[in-house]
Backbone:
């Protein structure tokens, strides 16, 4: 059971927790749509980021959707998930790792990748703080 009641706004348990603040829910959803509808990264890369972050951010709701793969061969996904892992453990990306990013991604892609990691982290931290569980009824 979540720590606060579900609002009447939103379609998912996450949205209904955020829905106590309708304007925030609307703008959050708009940003989410913008980020996840971007064609910059593959859906596989985005999903592996989400999975990696879920386990570091402690969101039970997100963890229930699957563990990160330990058999990633794509170098872009490997570097992106390593970056997400570093950030979600509150560590600094050192110059050596940042150079790996720059070798694999353009500046535009790095900007979007970091925004994606931060957005997913914020969403998952919100879910974790409110104890959103995979079995939360709406």
Residues:
């Amino acid at each position: 059971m979540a720590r606060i009641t579900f609002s009447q706004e939103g379609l998912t348990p996450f949205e209904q927790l955020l829905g106590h603040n309708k304007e925030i829910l609307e703008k959050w959803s708009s940003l989410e749509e913008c980020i996840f509808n971007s064609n910059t990264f593959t859906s596989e890369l985005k999903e592996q980021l989400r999975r990696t972050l879920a386990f570091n951010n402690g969101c039970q709701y997100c963890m229930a959707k699957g563990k990160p793969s330990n058999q990633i061969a794509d170098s872009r996904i490997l570097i992106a998930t390593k970056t997400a892992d570093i950030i979600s453990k509150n560590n600094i990306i050192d110059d050596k790792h940042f150079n790996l990013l720059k070798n694999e991604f353009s500046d535009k892609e790095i900007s979007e990748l970091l925004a994606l990691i931060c957005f997913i982290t914020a969403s998952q931290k919100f879910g974790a703080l409110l104890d959103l569980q995979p079995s939360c009824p709406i």
